[in-house]
Structure formats: C-alpha cells, structure tokens
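Page header: ASSEMBLY MODEL / two components / 694 residues total.
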Amino acid sequence: MKPEYNEEIFEIQGSDGQLIHCVYNYIDGDDNAPLIVAAPQFEGTVRHNLLPMLFLVSNGFRVLRFDFTDHRGNSDGARAEFTLTSGLADLADVLSGIGTSLPDDRSRLSLFAGSLSSRLAVRYLASNHDRIDSFLSLVGVVNSAATTLAASGMDYENLMRDSSYVYGYQKAVNYELNFDRWMRDFAEEDWARPDRTRDEITQMVTPTYLIVAAADDWVNIDEYPYVYEQNKEILRATHQIPGAAHELYKDPETLKEAMRTATRCFRRHYSMDENIELVEPTVAELISLNGKERERELVYKKPQPQNR
Amino acid sequence: MAAPLKQSEHAIEWTSLAAVSALDDWVHHREDIFHASLETVEALQVDSARAAVRHHQSNNEDYRIYCERLQFDSSEIVDVASLARIPLITSSQFKLRQVLSVPERDIVKICTSSGTQGSISEVFRDETTLCRFLSSVRSCMEQLVGLDDAYCAHLGPSKEEADDLWISYAMSVTDMQFPTENFVVDGEYHPERLVKRIRDVRDDFEHVMLIGAPVMYLRLLEYLEESGESLDECGNFVAITAGGWKRFSGESISRAAMVKRLQKAFRGLRDDNVRDFFNMVEFNSVLGDCSHGVKHAPPWARLLIVDPRTLQSVPDGESGLFAFVDPTSTSYPGFILTDDFARISLNGTCGCGRTGQGIEFIRRVNRGESRGCALKIDRAYAGRDK
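Prediction written out in full:
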C-alpha cells in the first residue's frame, strides 16, 4: 500500500520563455530526502511517470515530474513540434530551475529517464558534471535514428540521401509529430550517430545505472557495449529484463520489477538500506490514482497553438 | 536503412531481473496478437492452460478436490481438444463462496458483478490477474478496434458512483489508455453534456469513442432526436456497446435499428465502427468485434460451447452454453461455465484477416435473477421517470 503523498504544481520558465509544467511529490517528513527528477517519456506526460513516482516516493525519495514543451502534456508549445533538442533544453531548464522552486535542491539530486529521454540525459550529463548525483536509464535509447525507424518507420537516411526530403506530420507510436523538424534536428544537432552517443558517454562522470529490456525491438541492446566501451567506470549496475519489450508501461508488473530495481539502485547510491522491504503500489491503486492524474491534466490543459 | 550496428568486444555483463513469461509476452507485449498461426495459438493455449490448471490445483483446495473427484489430471492437457476436459466451475460459484487460488493478502481488487436481486458475485483479483485484464482491454482497443489516440465518452457512471459496477470499473481501466469521462453523474444521465463535450474535444483526438450499454445509447438518441441535434463528419467516431441488449423490462433492443438511428445522429459514423464488446466479471479477457462483426477471442483464451444437458463440447457452429479456459487469472480458476448461450462462429481466419476463434452470443439462460450490467444500468440510470 502506498503512503499518502503531497503534491505541488508549479511552472518553470524555460530559456526560450515557454513554461514547463512541473509536478512535485513528497511525503510529510521527507523534506530532505533525495530528489529524483523523472524526465517524461516520449509521447508521454507527467501521468505516464505515475508508477515510477509512486515507487520512489513510497521508498524514501521526493520526485519531480514534468512535461516537455512542444509536446503532449501541460507545458507550453505546439505538441507536434517536439525535438530532441527542445527536450534537452527542457531537461536542462528544469534541472537549473528547481533551485527557485524546491527546498534543499542543491543536495542529493538524481535523474531518472527512460527511452529517448535517457538519450537527452546522456547529452546533458556529458557537459554537466556537478549537478546530478546519479543517473538511472530505463530502456535507454542509444541510437536515436534506429529507434525512430523501428518505432515509426521514418528513416533518417532519406534525409541524408536527399536534403530536401519531406517527411511531413506522421504518427510516432500514438503521437503525431512533425518529422521534418524532428529529422532536421537530428542532422543539425548530431543526434543520429551512435558515435556521438559514445562520445558523450565517454565525457560523463555521473554514476550510472542501466536497466534494459532484453527483447526490445526499438533499442538494440547489443549497441550498449560499444557506446559505453570507453567509460565503463561510470556503470554502477547493469540489469536486463529477459523477454521484456520496450514499452514497459504496457506491462505494469514488469515495470514494477524495473522500478523495484531502480529504487534499490537509488537507495544504494544514497547509502540508504537497500535490503528493506519496499513499499509497492498495486495496479488497483494505479488505476484509481490514474483518474486523479487525468483530472489534473484537464485542469492545467492549455490551448494548442496553430502549428501548421 | 539505419547505419550498421557498431559492436564492441567488451561485453556488458547484465544481471537478469525476473523474466517475462511466454503468456505475459502475449498478453502485454506483442503488437499483433490476432494474426498468429493456428498452430502457434493452440500451442499457447495448451501450454498456458496446463500451467494454469497446475497452479490452481496446487493453490486452491476446492479446485484440487474437484479435479480429483472428476479424476482429472493436468497431464491430460496435450492438445486443444483436451482443453474441453478441464473441470469447469460455474459462474454461480462466485456468488456462493470465495473462489481463491492465492492468499487473501495478495488480493488487490474485489470485483463485483451487477447482481440485481441481492446475490452478487465477488471475483478476487491479484496483481497479476488485474494487470493482465488491463492489457486485454488495451489489446482489444488497439488491435481489434485500431484505436491508439481517442477521447472516450462513457455513457455510464464512474466506478465510485456505481459502487464498482464491473463495466464502470472496466471503464476506469480504459482511462489508463484514453482520457475517459463518465456522463452519469449523481445518478443522472447527461446526454446533453456528452454531446457538448464531444463538440469541444473532438478536434484534439484522432478518434472519438462512445462506450456504454445499448440502453444508454437509446437515451442518447432520444435526447438527440428530441432536441434536433446531430453531429457531422463522424467518420472517426467509434461506438462501442457492452453489457447486453436486453432491457430491464425484458424487451430486446434491436441492434440494426439502433445503428441506423446512430448514423442519423452521428453523420458519417460507419457501420463497421459500431462494435460490441463482451466481458463478464469472472472473465479476465475481453472479446471484441472486428470490423466484420465477429467477436474475437484473444489467442490465450479458449472458448468452449457445451451441451447444457450433457456438458459435453458441441461442434463449432452449434449453440450451447458458453464456457472458457482463460489462463490469465492466477487468483481464481479461469475455467468457467457461464449462463450464456452462444456458438463458435469462427475457428480459423476471419474475413478481417485475424485468426483464432470468434463467438456469437445468443441469449442468457432464463433465471429468476439476472446479472447483466446493462440491466442494472437500465434500472438505475436509463429510466426517464425514475
């Protein structure tokens, strides 16, 4: 059973002036607990990080969730215009902006990021060595072009062959995206090359925990040894879930297994007892709380700007 | 084509966490569960059923004794025909006793039927069982109806208001996938709010889904027809019925007539976007119509039709009592004989291209007490002069 938790909602102004919707959860008496920033998953919102939040908050952490700008959710911007670069800017803005919004932010701050957000985190951590205590990557993307191709059928190589190639607005997973913008961002900001991922990982100093899905069709986990080859020292634990596919949120029991491990990793990192019996939310609680999360989404909903 | 894979000679040593089982791979992870070959489906059904029977024999004393009395051994489950020999429990057992195959502390949700005359079924679901139900709903929506971005208008009450009436609870599960709003509030049905809300949000979503008992659609249609309102360009609308086609008065609702009226009120609504779903509180999987109107079983569940007198399986196409072998429930045996008359309408490849079994429901056994969610909703919410 989950303990009662508190919730505060605020906005952080991003470097481009757009407002980033943030949801902060904590338990009474845990005001000084380590803070975990949970980056949203691509096409997901604060609500999609409900289970990770419940796990972490119930077991000794405070959690900050947020929505990307130019993306589905309650932050500013036209939701089809999201790019990895805009997501990276949001992540950096949140991590630097929490200083004015939360107590004791300067100490004990870790990052939890899944899928494409994990890729953003790698780039952030490559050049930010002092801010984050530890990083947990869940089904992290290491080859953005390959993942985009596998998940949406949109091939970055088309743009490489023809710089005027038009992708248009297409669905990625269940989310319509401006793929011209997405792919050109890949090219301009060098998101597509696994070698760039490797270079950035090589620059990282943050203790890193990996959890991957062994049957992931969107992330080839055989690429992990290559991208981490030059900097295995940062890896504190590496876990795989046999038989699991990329979209862990579709399988709450497997996501719970991942979160059990993630929670223990964070607890170990902060020298908290990692062998305690964890407090675990049930799926019935998840279903019940999901309704409340939907209500909040509605309350803070923003009108969509015309983007086409 | 993506760049060739870059590999390292220096492997990462992965520590394995709990593996996803073969059954859970089908239930939660696969994106094309309705197109497997019959051989694959049958192997899944046989293996999963055998494991499930063994689990319930080991963890449910009543079921173990029942199997012993029938001299049934799980090793008899060797092919799909042998699934019909699995001892079935009747759905009425859930009204009489706690049917439990896990310790009570593992139960995360007690699901109740819509008993209208005092005898309510209680179905105890543990974490695994409820998670699998959630995924069955998702699979039906995504892989049968083809929805992945939709606004869902539920023509009924929230689970809180309906005291966990099963269809309302199932809708709260749907809310995990799509934003879902309930249009029975404080005991009153508000079709006018529903229509206004759809007008407000329809442009934000790829699809608009209406879901509810047929009787609630009738009330919605009455409102629209009396007010002279209609909605245009409803080609992306899907109307899902669930809960049964009989009114509390005993009168049957004509599906064909209702579809015709719906198409007048929601202009552009396609015939094949009016779908019916079947579920009951004891069944941990959802059966949904494809675009050809065939109610498909998910590959892990075996649907059986038995002669009501002999309880022996009848050939495909013949009607009889509906039973099922559903290995997804761990907290109670999902081998259940129901009160519904049905016939297997498909065992192979459907016109829609999907494979497996399809079923057509005919009627419910006449009894003094009725359990249908639609009947309870009719009595509680659809009557205009309550």
